[in-house]
User: Fold this.
Amino acid sequence: MKILQVGPNSVHVSSYISALSETEKDIYLVSEEACDFQGVKENFVISFRSLNPIAVLKSIRLLKQLLVKLKPDVIHIHQVNRAAYFVARIAQKLNIRVVTTAWGSDVLLIPKQNAFFKYLVTQTLKNAAIVTADSQDMIEAMKALHPQGNYKLLQYGIDPIQALEKEKIIYSNRLHEPLYRIEKVIEYFNQFSAQHPDWKLVI
Assistant:
């Protein structure tokens, strides 16, 4: 399976690609600056940051040529921004599936700045088969822009580890100052230890 990742030079994108590379999929990257990410077969640098219309048109042409040549099975866009808008738009015309992951301010704050940014974000959401986010607030904000979108709440976590047996210690790392009422900690522990004599308090 050939996957094209689209995103900024960020540790979030790097970590995602690193984990995905373990699945034996072919991973390519489009970014607006060169990224030294492990697990990427090739990094294509195409920027949409210029305010020069000619430069933007050139980038659009390069992006379309790349997508036609690469023919990815799916495109995963990280962060809803200008680059995301053009990638999603071209991919939709080429019938390439797009998954978009919103990051936060890109859908919570940017659309409120002006009508132009609101349009870019809304159209990017419309051209995605699935849009993921890690908070319900973000999903509600996106629904307000494009109610028909296919939104998925995906919260990140950690790999499960075997729990260690807890030592019978209550640890208070507060300073010995009146503000922290150390005497109350001692008083309450004294009450607790009456029924749990095998526990100890460290202050």
Summary: The chain is about 40% helix and 20% strand. Residues 136 and 153 are 7 Å apart (CA to CA). The radius of gyration is 25 Å. Residues 169-202 form one domain.
